[in-house]
C-alpha cells in the first residue's frame, strides 16, 4: 500500500478531486516532461488527454502548443480542473468508451489510467482507435513503500486490494505492460522513468484524509481509535525521513508509446 494507485478507480478515486489536486497530482505529473520528449514538438497537433484528473498535465500540454481536448469521468476531478485551469475545457467522458471518431486526434495520452480499468486491454484498444499519429500511456511499476510502513508501524493489517481476474489483469512491470499493450494491438516502445517525489507531509496527509488511492481508501475503513494510531505512526515515520520541509519518495513509472502507421 505505497503511493501506488493500482486500485481500480471506482474503489479509491471517485469524489477525491480536491484531495488529489493537493497531493498526488504533483506526483503523477512527474512523467510529463518525458512524455513530451517522446511525442515531439506540438506543431499545432491535436492531443486528447484521457483521464486528465485535475488538469495539471493537460494544461502543460496546452502550454507546449498542443490543441487540447481533455476528458475525465469523475465530476470532482473536473471541478478541480476548472478551478485550477479555467481556460481548460474538460469533457465528461472516459474509458472504456470514448465519444470520439476513429483517429480524431493526432496524439492520445493516458497517464496512470489503464491500471484502473476493469479491462485494461479494451481501454488500450480504445486509446489506439482515436489516435492518428501516436498514443502514449503510463503505469506505476514501482512505488515507495511509505504507506505500508505506516500501516505496519501502527500495528494495523492492510486490506487486500481487489485484483482483476487473471484473464484481464497484467503484470505491473515494464515488460508486463508491454505484453498487455501488444495484446491490445499496439506496437509499443516501453521505458521506465525513476524520479524522487519531494512532497510536504501536509500534502501526503491530505491524500489519506481525502480518501485518495489505496492508503486513503484503507484509512476510511478504520475506526476513530485506529485512525489516531495511523496518524501517530505517520507522524513518527515522516519525522524520521524529513529533509528540510519535505519527504523524498522514489517512484518508477513505465511509459509506453506506440506510433500508428499511415493509412
UniProtKB/TrEMBL annotation:
It is an enzyme of class 2 (transferase). Its EC number is 2.1.1.163. InterPro entries: Methyltransf_11, SAM-dependent_MTases_sf. The keyword Transferase applies. GO terms for molecular function: demethylmenaquinone methyltransferase activity; S-adenosylmethionine-dependent methyltransferase activity. It comes from the Bacteria. Keywords: Methyltransferase, Transferase. It holds the Pfam family Methyltransf_11. Residues 48-131 form the Methyltransferase type domain. The keyword Magnesium does not apply. One of its GO terms (biological process) is methylation. PANTHER family: TRANS-ACONITATE 2-METHYLTRANSFERASE-RELATED. This is 2-heptaprenyl-1,4-naphthoquinone methyltransferase. It comes from Microbacterium esteraromaticum.
